[in-house]
Write a structure and sequence with these properties.
Layout: H1 10-18, H2 26-38, E1 42-45, H3 52-63, E2 67-71, H4 78-81, E3 83-85, H5 87-99, H6 105-112, E4 118-120, H7 122-125, E5 136-140, H8 147-159, E6 161-164, E7 168-171, E8 177-182, H9 190-193, E9 197-200, H10 206-216, H11 222-236, H12 246-258, H13 266-271, H14 273-276, H15 280-286, H16 289-305
Parallel strand pairs: 1-8, 1-9, 2-5, 5-8
Antiparallel strand pairs: 3-4, 6-7
Length: about 300
């Protein structure tokens, strides 16, 4: 992995993302540039599938930094996120010391609570020095955790350190490049947001989404890619439980390419809706007559634009 310097301008940030075919708008590139230059965490909110997580992966790839991912879930605690002790190995060490007659309790206590027995989880790993520079730390879907874990994160985000009672405080020499994502299933506390720069990642315009599809699915035809994007954009205007994100657009485009589809027709749309929509109620609402109606509108729009 080759280390690259941080971008020196917003335009360089756009180019950096573009190297990995991540086509960002200028507002996102601006806040990302500021987060990198200021050493501040970047908090990204938006619907699922709009590319929030991908930003951390792209930064890791283009900057040549290690990616450390903490996938959040309900009940996430310190032992899974920061560290825990290898109790089995500690017990073996204690038994061996007792068998050898070495029962200096103070020294034994110090030995078993040393780094040798420490299992480092993502947040602690992110504070360690790296020859390629501070790693990219992705705290993914923070809204899935509870407020107690949020409160614990404050120390990490504010001071780039964690406290291990048995060992003391571990502080990063340089702050990790921290990306926090949320699908906004619940509100994140203001105290945590204040420590971050913020950006809402929305759905892309049709023009930008078309560029994304053509960059990520290079085998797709010009006509089909345009139909895919216009149809997905039309779907997002419908009353759906979960609108398709960019990830679903790319999956659909790739699936249609695998099926050697040249142009969309109502039957193909209905047969492949399960790639775009992930709830049966949404599929039932769109398939058949509604799919044909939307596709007819897409074709009319495209003809008018020619």
């Amino acid at each position: 992995m080759t280390k690259s310097p941080l971008p020196a301008s917003i335009d360089e940030t756009l180019k950096l993302l573009g190297k990995a075919d991540y086509l960002a708008d200028r507002s996102l590139a601006t806040v990302l540039f500021l987060a990198l230059r200021m050493g501040r965490p970047l908090f990204l909110e938006g619907e699922a599938g709009v590319g929030k997580t991908e930003i951390a992966k792209v930064l890791s790839q283009t900057l040549g930094r290690r990616l450390i991912r903490l996938q959040c879930y309900e009940g996430l605690d310190v032992s899974a996120a920061v560290y825990e002790w290898n109790y089995a190995e500690q017990m073996i060490a204690i038994r061996l010391a007792e068998a050898e007659g070495n029962v200096d309790r103070e020294r034994l206590s110090h030995d078993v609570f040393s780094e040798r027995f420490l299992i480092k989880r993502p947040l602690l790993q992110a504070l360690e020095p790296d020859v390629n520079g501070a790693p990219v730390l992705l705290i993914d879907e923070l809204d899935r955790t509870d407020e107690a874990f949020e409160a614990f994160l404050l120390e990490v985000l504010a001071d780039n350190q964690v406290t291990i009672p048995e060992m003391g405080t571990v502080k990063a020499a340089a702050p990790p490049v921290t990306i926090i994502t949320s699908n906004r299933t619940r509100e994140i506390h203001d105290a945590l947001k204040r420590r971050c720069l913020y950006h809402w990642v929305g759905y892309p315009t049709a023009e930008r989404e078309l560029k994304i599809v053509r960059a990520k699915v290079p085998g797709i035809g010009k006509k089909l890619s345009a139909e895919v994007v216009h149809f997905v954009q039309a779907l997002r205007a419908q009353d759906l439980f979960k609108s398709p994100g960019v990830a679903e657009s790319l999956d659909w485009a790739a699936a249609l390419t695998e099926l050697d589809v040249v142009a969309l027709d109502p039957a193909t749309v209905s047969d492949t809706l399960g790639v775009l929509l992930k709830y049966q109620d949404d599929i039932a609402r769109i398939e058949g007559t509604k799919a044909k109606e939307l596709l007819d509108a897409v074709h009319a729009e495209m003809r008018a634009a020619e």
